[in-house]
Design brief:
The protein is mainly α. It has helices at 11-35, 39-61, 65-74. Helix 1 runs antiparallel to helix 2 and helix 2 runs antiparallel to helix 3. The protein starts with 10 loop residues before the first helix and ends with a helix.
């Protein structure tokens, strides 16, 4: 009998999941830094997002072309 649960994540998927969990907080912090005109905060969080989108592109490159382009567009 099948339990209905999805298969466990691969190591690659777990790594990608960690990257994706950084995006929303970094984006919120980036927005706050821009609004406060805080260059250090803005620079730091822009770098986090840039790396996250680069990692996303690598993850999706062999899997789905649309997602790869979305990561490029987001960066």
């Amino acid at each position: 009998m099948r339990s209905g649960l999805p298969p466990p994540l691969t190591a690659e998927e777990e790594s990608y999941q960690k990257v994706m969990k950084q995006v929303a907080p970094a984006f919120a912090a980036l927005r706050g830094g821009v609004e406060a005109m805080n260059v250090e905060n803005t620079t730091k969080n822009a770098a986090v997002l840039k790396q996250a989108f680069a990692d996303t592109e690598v993850f999706w490159k062999a899997k789905k072309a649309d997602a790869t382009q979305w990561a490029r567009d987001a960066a």
